[in-house]
């Protein structure tokens, strides 16, 4: 029923939500729709308001193997309120239509959805309805702009990292998010990485420019006014965004923004969406905004199912390999497999060479054709380096279960022979310089590789 004018639901929607109402509404849904929702908090704002997230899934609280995770974040700027309100509409829409509407049901069954209506609840408290373009309430309670508060690839961000920023960074590090949008207001356009270009306003292309453009258009083309490209003619008469999308830095540079950090430091592809020219529109206009953006919000979520997905498995025990690297030839942006070896790689249609590699395993490359439909499933079963013949003369098997003294001596002898150790090193998929320091990533991979080779006498805890 949501979205149809004149229903009682609509009367509910036009009540502007105070912070308390956001909470009571999200709580209400998590009680009424217990089977498909879970309400949790990722931390607290400066003024100790919870940063609530509603999870919507057919198995809330659980990462289902192979199922991608999606998130929306709203109200990062406290006085840009449309995201906050529309996300409440979206939660309600998914809950009410689950089990009856095919699209909503399929989304909830096949996606783990996380929705944070407000990342800056404190800023919202001092904002005012009817505020078209001010900055009152934009920042958090310590007066820092949260979308300038993330580590940046070009600029050293010296402002102290804020509790809201830290909470969201931790959340993003702890969950295998694949796709995300950060909802703002004050214009009408989808903005994609990079947002920064060493402080210069110019198109700052990231390696995944093609898929980011496709993701951005999936949202903009469902919103007629946005797609038209002339968003806020009374405020900015000359502004034009072809197809309602823009590269972030081409519009203006944002050092310390969330979307670039997400792309560069997690597996999650994120865009920033300006939902309307008015930052804090009158409550009576909210139904209009929901109507304008509802299809966009749903279409964008579906994009999490594009590209390639699958598992990276250990050939000896069929277990998933955590933190394996998935590389796409000619796209310089590797992603990592999640805890159970599952991975998701968003890509536009095309033919790709995709390689899975992990420390201690032989890498594997596959040719993959991506079409403009559901993600193609590609699994990689990797062999341990040490399960292989090192060369035709020296056969080495480091396997703790076959650990008789005779075999051990043979192994040591083989490794010590003329080419034994060299061959072992050469057959390793990753550059194994013998003398070097190990950064954190390296350290993790070395420990994991050692554990895989010596499972009988080591245990790796995390
Ligand atoms: Zn904003």
TrEMBL record:
An MF annotation (GO) of this entry: zinc ion binding
Membrane spanning residue stretches: none
Active-site residues annotated for this sequence: 274 (proton donor/acceptor)
SMART domains reported in the protein's UniProt record: Zn_pept
SUPFAM superfamilies, alphabetized: Carboxypeptidase regulatory domain-like, Zn-dependent exopeptidases
Coiled coil: none
UniProt GO cellular component terms: extracellular space
Cofactor: Zn(2+)
InterPro entries: CarboxyPept-like_regulatory, CARBOXYPEPT_ZN_1, CARBOXYPEPT_ZN_2, Peptidase_M14, Peptidase_M14_domain
UniProt-listed GO biological process terms: peptide metabolic process; protein processing
A Pfam family recorded for this sequence: Peptidase_M14
Database matches in PROSITE patterns: CARBOXYPEPT_ZN_1, CARBOXYPEPT_ZN_2, PEPTIDASE_M14
Start and end residues of each Peptidase M14 domain: 14-304
UniProt keyword terms in alphabetical order: Carboxypeptidase, Glycoprotein, Hydrolase, Metal-binding, Metalloprotease, Protease, Zinc
PANTHER family: CARBOXYPEPTIDASE D, PROTEASE M14 CARBOXYPEPTIDASE
Similarity comment: Belongs to the peptidase M14 family.
Protein name, per record: Carboxypeptidase D, a
